[in-house]
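Case study 2.
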Amino acid sequence: MEQKQPDVVDIFAVEERPGAVVFALAVCLGALVLLAQMDEQTKWLKGAALLVQPRFWPGLCLAGFAFFALCHFISTWTRHRKSRQYSFLPPDELANWARPTEYALYFMAYVFLVPQLGYLPTTLLALPALVFRLGYRSPSKLMASMLVGLCTVVVFKTLLQVRIPGGRWYEFLPDGLRNLLILYF
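Prediction:
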């Protein structure tokens, strides 16, 4: 009886994906930008040993990151040229990459609205809006998101005493209520 040999899998065979060259280039450039910022972001202490320098370990990590990012870019570029793909970034892949920016814009709107409306009202508006955007339409889900928002505000402002600016409209409230909202909500 003949034994069947298992299929040999080439672990180095990489399927070329759309946008891989653009992603590899972006990672490589990002690593180089971070490496270029080392002088401004870290210190070099005179007379200190090399291994205890504040700049040494971050510099070593960023140099390694830049080196391996460059290796990744070169290998991706070579595979791309061998596969004879002519499109670096097809439009459907660009649309996939752009989808998360929607949520980044929501976050920026939230950050902008907190000083205007206050932490509690903005959170109580933003969480149900995000839950609704994600496709949950039932009143119980929307109420649960408001409860999560209220608990989040209570934990951050009341228990952890994180200082978050009060909303501008708090100025129009009576003194006692305004102080209560600014301190705890």
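Residues 56-83 form the longest helix (28 residues).
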